[in-house]
Amino acid sequence: MGSEGKDAAKVIVQCHRCEKPQTLRSSGLQPCDGYACWEHGPKKLQVPGLVRDIVHNAAGGFYGWHDVTSRQEITQAVRRAREIAVIGTAEIAVRDAAPEDGVTTSAVAQASGLARYTYRLRVPSAALAALLTEWDRCRWVWNECVAQSRAAHHAKQTCGPAQLDKMLTGWRTEHEWLRTGASVPQQQTIRDFAKSRAKALKDIKARLPMKQRAGMPRFKKKDLADPTLNYTRNGFRLKDGGLHLAGGIALTVVWSRDLPAEPSSVRIYRDSLGHWYASFVVPAETQPLPATGRCIGIDWGVKQTATTTSDDHDLPHAEHGNKAAVRLARYQRKMARRKPERGQTASRGYRSARRQAAKLHKKVARQRQDGARKWAKKVVRDHDVIAVEDFRPKFLAKSTMARKAADAAISATKRALIEMARKHGRDVRLVHPAHTTMDCGHCGARTKHALPLSERTYTCNACGAVSSRDKNSARVMLIRAGLNPAGVDRVRPDRPPDSQAA
Asked: What HEC string does 14-71 produce?
């Protein structure tokens, strides 16, 4: 789909209720009667059948589908499309297959979108006091928004961002200490609150399970909430290599790399170690790499984080968390011995042990992120098309492999691969993981029973092929993604025996 996205035909559709027209750019899409706008979305339409096409146009916000089995299938498909949309303004298609047949989601990275560039800050004592004071004002505004939202809910009234903006004007008039602070971060606090509240109401309206809901915004306590300040273009400027915020706050930025464009906003925040960072939002630019003409299939696992069709690109389990477990246990025992009673101030030893544990957690997280990015860069540089298992390791948290699966950081590695592919304009295709360990990567035949986890060798009863279980699954990813795996091992796969002509 990488070359078809530019030459895609334009299809004009209308909402089935309000008849609002919309132009979709999609290759191979046939118009149908089941299109709806955001207001009359897919949950309002019920027709029996099978999910065939779901196309998300990021600019117009239209969903189109042919036949639908249930609301649950629509919700799952739309959620998958929105997850893939993190690549940028992408064209997403769920094509011609039920989950048991292996749905392949193809995503084409485009040049539009936004990206964040984060830098370390050197904060002087005077600037630190000003930042904390500004954060106290923004935290007060957030808590007032929470109180007003709850009061409006009990009174069965609305509480939108426009109403909160009017309230902010009254609060700044009433309180002089609030008026002395910059208005930009306070307004952005209201925007963040409105976005969080809208997400919670949307989950409630969609009747998602309680574990999947975002939850209504809560009060932020002084000792528990880390400072976070957002500034738009009117609230900051870059001058002489430094960052100047509204209110006369001057910060020194550690420029580890250059900004590719003029930033539109910046977020100032403090992490668990007390380090301050500035995260700039800039337009995302695609940095194309030379074409290689190669494709690769990737299967996720626990013993080996990523198994690919190329032995040179396999990602072994680094076990960063396991290596740091001994020191982490020692720091946690120190914290347990020095844990303060309820209402008492923590001792210096407890704070020191807590900081050491947080520092070790941060180090492990950075090691995982660094390893994932380096591996993703290597895979993206050497291949044009990448077929990735759309694996969600959430169920592993309830198994005996929970600790090792968490240490593998499959989700973080998968996210790094998708972001790296978007950055360099590569074609990433997410493959549904159903029955990938049961299908043969050579003839396409499927075993009658699922293989147990203890069996690491796949033997096909139809063609007699014997290969590693994970290698066979990686090859299945290529076949389901519509790629010709002949270039992988120079063998053209035969059709399944039951599909051949007599």
From this structure: ECCCCCCEEEEECCCCCCCCCCECCCCCHHHCCCCCCCCCCEEECCCCEEECCCCCCH
Q: Where are the alpha helices (DSSP H) in 175-309?
A: 176-179, 183-205
Instruction: Please name the residue that has the structure tokens 């609002």.
Output: 20
String of b and e for 49-67 (b: at least 16 CB within 10 Å)? Answer: eebbbbbbbbebebbbbbe
Output the six-digit token pair for 284. 């995302």
Beta strands at 104-108 and 427-431: parallel, antiparallel or unpaired: antiparallel
Dihedral of alpha carbons 44, 47, 48, 51, sign: negative
pLDDT at 448: 74
Cα(94)–Cα(63) distance, rounded to whole angstroms?
12
What CA–CA distance (Å, rounded) separates 413 from 377?
A: 11
Helix (H) or strand (E) holding 333: helix 325-337
3-state secondary structure 367-426: HHHHHHHHHHHHHHHHCCEEEEECCCHHHHHHCCCHHHHHHHCHHHHHHHHHHHHHHHCC
Alpha-carbon span 339 to 131, nearest angstrom: 30
Nearest by Cα to 189 from 155, 146, 158: 146
Helix 125-154 × helix 183-205 angle, to 10°: 40
Partner residues linked to 308 by β-bridges: 298
Q: Confirm if 483 and 441 have CB atoms less than 8 A apart.
A: no
Percent of the chain with pLDDT over 70: 74
Q: Point out the residues of the chain with pLDDT beneath 70.
A: 1-112, 484-502
